Amino acid sequence: MTKKRIKSILGLILLFGLLAGIIAYPSPVNKGISFLNEKTGLDLPSFWNISFKLGLDLQGGTHLVYEADTSGISSEEKSSIMQGLRDIIERRVNLFGVQEPVVQVQESGEHTRLIVELAGIKDPSEAIRMIGETPFLEFREEREEEDREKILDAMERFEQKEDKDLLQFEDWALLFEDPYFQPTLLTGKYLKKADLDFDQVTYRPIVGLQFNDEGKDLFKEITSNNIGKQVAIYIDNVLLSAPVVQETISEGRAQITGDFTIEWARELVRGLNAGALPVPITLISQQSVGPTLGAISLNQSLYAAVYGFLAIIVFMIIFYRFSGLLASFALLIYIAVFLSIVKIIPITLTLAGIGGLILSIGMAVDANILIFSRTKEELKGGENLDSALEQGFKRSWPSVRDGNITTFIVAMILFFFGTSFIKGFALTLSVGILLSMVSAFFVTKNLMLFFSFTSLKKWKRIWL
Description:
Layout: H1 3-24, H2 27-40, H3 56-59, E1 61-68, H4 75-93, E2 102-108, E3 111-119, H5 124-131, E4 137-142, H6 145-160, E5 181-187, E6 191-198, E7 205-211, H7 213-225, E8 231-235, E9 238-241, E10 253-256, H8 262-275, E11 281-289, H9 294-344, H10 351-380, H11 385-417, H12 420-452, H13 460-463
Antiparallel strand pairs: 1-3, 1-11, 2-3, 4-5, 4-8, 6-7, 7-10, 8-9
Helix pairs in contact: 1-9, 1-12, 9-10, 9-12, 10-11, 10-12, 11-12
């Protein structure tokens, strides 16, 4: 590679590193721009300033408690259904794991609750909007006449009572039942997709439903058992449609019709496709929570990271001399690029995520050590500096590659199968691994090749 080409590559590296550094820490540049505007009367714009997003453990957020209605499901199914509910809610607020929510199931006696904690959200209403009002879809079939009369009779007797105390009424549980329709096993849990269509005659909106294989079988069974009867479609316990079944429907398709607007139908389709809840939930508690670590602990953690990085620089310079100094400079570019990526995506930083960042820095240092050790062996074998550098990078690549790939695979497993905080750690570690390989085999390499064309090439002892 010619010196001119290396200069061009190194210039791009330095320019990119400077830009990344400004994105990561724009305050000095913006102060300079403000000073220049004040002195010259210019109106230069400030540089793009993005704040880091901190996790719940570092900056606090919102704590929500939802009560799940599991009265209609068996105890054997409760665990899997609640896990599905947790996954749906987490998917809504955690795109690629960057929001770092805490979503967990809590059981206390007969109560089953869902705990949702969201970082950086001080207003509970904003958190509720993030989760969204997910519609609860269910199908109900007509009750037997005997059951219907029993419920209606209980309601009439209660209305005639002067004392409206439910606890003193013998059949109080019947007052909460639908006298005309009873629930079936077919709910939004079995929904495959929903779409918006229009009636060809009236042009009114229609919400089409397509069930999965299990839902298809349930819908077929319901329609075959209720030919000539009504099957009611409820959304959030509100009756929307109750068509009469004319024949068995085996394709697993249904339609919701009614006197509703296009916008309402569109929102319903969006909500159902985002994940219809397997069981209805009710918000019973909401509050803002403070950081669990606090600003003092965060500052102490940052100081520890800075001192650790300075120790790495000292180590690299003492043991690898000028090459160690160049590697340290490459690590500075690596950190600037990493932090700018964290801001731009953005990735929510928790202690787990910061741990992934620090671990990836260690792997970047490890890659440089393998390269330098191999290059030193080549120099001791009598090779000149150019040949030693080339062989050092070439022969150390398989070891660095295999080590990073195996760690990356583990990080991907943690990301796809882990919970929120584990995903945050895996995400920062994965990004760091990819950047560390670029740092070692592109940035460090081009820095060393550039200085190998200078008079420093004669002083082999200062290189390693």
